[in-house]
Design brief:
alpha/beta, six-stranded parallel β-sheet, 7 helices, 259 residues
């Protein structure tokens, strides 16, 4: 298995960095190939601008169109091309980051904004009476798996169904479904570490053991059963879930999972 780890934490001695390092050693010891994109260490540029697209950039800048033209002509900036090549190389992508203000750190969102270009991560496939492009289960990254490894400062009770922050699965849905599943990645249930701000050195061995167990099951864990866009569950072109497909009483984000 070939694994890309995209890591987003500024402190090399942080819990997130320790989990990243443990993932590298665990997977390599199991015979897997591993590459790491350590965004802070790379001094990753987090903002999209015309320099990303070289001669394909227009004035005024049109991000979707220009990024697609730059992708098609091979004129994306070298750092963006390198990350796209890593994604195509990988069988599995692990995203290691802390949950900050209910989402990923800005540098990681900037990685998505710049790397997931038009004609690479979106804007692919046919549009017809039966298909609405290749996305949500299809697309460039289909056949690969993704896993979020997320540290959360608050206790688990704050992120339950009645917790004040809302269910953790709801908070992660925009990433799981809207960023990862959209270009075709199969999304594994996340590894979420609650109470990270209160963790002590004595707590770490148990955390490390749980993380290693997840890493050893990357290939056998069933992905989140999101519904595929073009396989009959959604009316086209409205993309509304067809009536009667959901279990009784299910609403919200849960409508878009099977079973």
């Amino acid at each position: 298995m070939k694994t890309l780890i995209v890591h987003a934490h500024p402190e090399p001695k942080s819990l997130n960095s320790s989990l990243k390092d443990l993932a590298v050693s665990t997977l390599e010891n199991a015979g897997h190939e591993v590459r790491v994109s350590d965004l802070y260490a790379m001094n990753w540029k987090a903002v999209v601008d015309a320099t990303d697209y070289g001669p394909a950039a227009s004035s005024p800048l049109q991000v979707a169109r220009d990024s697609g033209r730059a992708f098609d002509t091979g004129t994306l900036s070298p750092d963006v091309r390198a990350e796209q090549e890593k994604l195509l190389w990988a069988d599995t992508i692990i995203f290691q980051f802390p949950l900050w203000w209910y989402t990923m750190p800005a540098i990681l969102k900037g990685w998505v904004d710049r790397v997931f270009t038009f004609h690479f991560a979106y804007g692919v496939g046919e549009h017809s009476d039966t298909k609405y492009g290749e996305r949500f289960g299809e697309g460039t990254l289909a056949g690969r798996r993704a896993l979020l490894s997320v540290t959360v400062g608050g206790p688990e009770s704050h992120y339950g169904a009645r917790g004040i922050n809302g269910p953790i699965d709801d908070l992660l849905f925009p990433i799981h479904h809207g960023i990862l599943y959209y270009p075709g990645l199969e999304v594994l249930p996340p590894f979420v570490l609650h109470g990270a701000d209160r963790m002590t050195a004595e707590d770490y061995p148990g955390v490390a053991k749980a993380w290693q167990q997840r890493l050893h099951t990357l290939e056998s864990t069933d992905p989140i059963p999101f519904r595929r866009q073009n396989f009959g569950d959604y009316a086209i072109p409205s993309l509304h879930l067809k009536e009667g497909l959901e279990p009784a009483g299910r609403t919200g984000f849960g409508l878009h999972t099977r079973g």
